[in-house]
Amino acid sequence: MILQKPMNRRDAMKMTVTGFGIAGAAAVGMRSAWGAAAAGEDLVPAGAKTLRELTTALAKSPRHRDFKAVPMILTSPDQWDAEALDLVLRYRGGPRQLWDNTALNSPWLNLMRNAMNAQIWSFRHPNFLAVSATHGTAHLALYDDFIWRKYLIKFLKGNPSRNLWLTEPPASEESPSTFENPEGVFSPHDNSITVLQRRGLVFLACHNEVWELTMALHRKGINPDHLSHEQMAAQFTNHLIPGAVLTPGIVGTLPELELAGFGYAK
Fold it and tell me: What three-state secondary structure class fits 100?
């Protein structure tokens, strides 16, 4: 089963009500959030002028989502979200932290939320920027409903049957004015990609993961439109979630982030 990964230190953490595993994310009463990235109330910290400028610039930067076919190795900046990625690399606020996220069924969202909370309120760094360098099975969370319905439900044998990691729990509707609320928008009850995007976290997507997943789908015969590998990879690229920043490959982008001053976290 694709979701079963060897348990590392992070995976071994107790998964209760925090919403980072499949069972937690499927809690009753959650509402879907398939709309634009950072939909809903702005959760960028007060005083975070530099972070707000980045989120505004990222929202305006173009995303390449009209591909007909893409190659295995991207060789030109117009094949990925070069302008948006450059904005992240040139960010002058801080601190800056990149998270090497590879396991979907792990506490990856919870750990990033904890890092943001401590940086913003404990260490008083409102311009703290967290970036998810997303690949491995975690990358499945960066595809929209179209891809899940057409390919991934069958690929994962219906478990799960939708992208639970985009779902906003009821806690997301709580007022952000009380950040100490143990069941509020900043609490373990509110781990979701959409909420973290509203807080300024950037999710980087991986072309190599797109290529290798579509290769696996081809091998399993999950190809309802009889697309070539290059065409299917383009379709998956075109249906990344709103706000995601496509890179030519995460493992190749990690050194660029570290050279730009991002601290590495796994």
Answer: strand
- What is the model's pTM? 0.86
DSSP 8-state class, residue 7: -
Residue 265: count of CB within 10 angstroms of its CB: 16
Query: Residue 230's CB: how many other CB atoms inside 10 A?
Result: 15
CB 84 within 8 A of CB 244: no
pLDDT by residue (tens digit) across 152-172? 999 999 999 999 999 999 999
The alpha helices in 93-228, defined as continuous H runs, are 108-117, 145-147, 153-155, 193-198, 207-220
DSSP bridge pairs for 203: 132
Query: Quick check: 134 and 250 in contact, CB under 8 A?
Result: yes
Helix (H, G, I), strand (E, B) or coil at 132: strand
Burial class (CB in 10 A: 0-12, 13-18, 19+), 222: middle
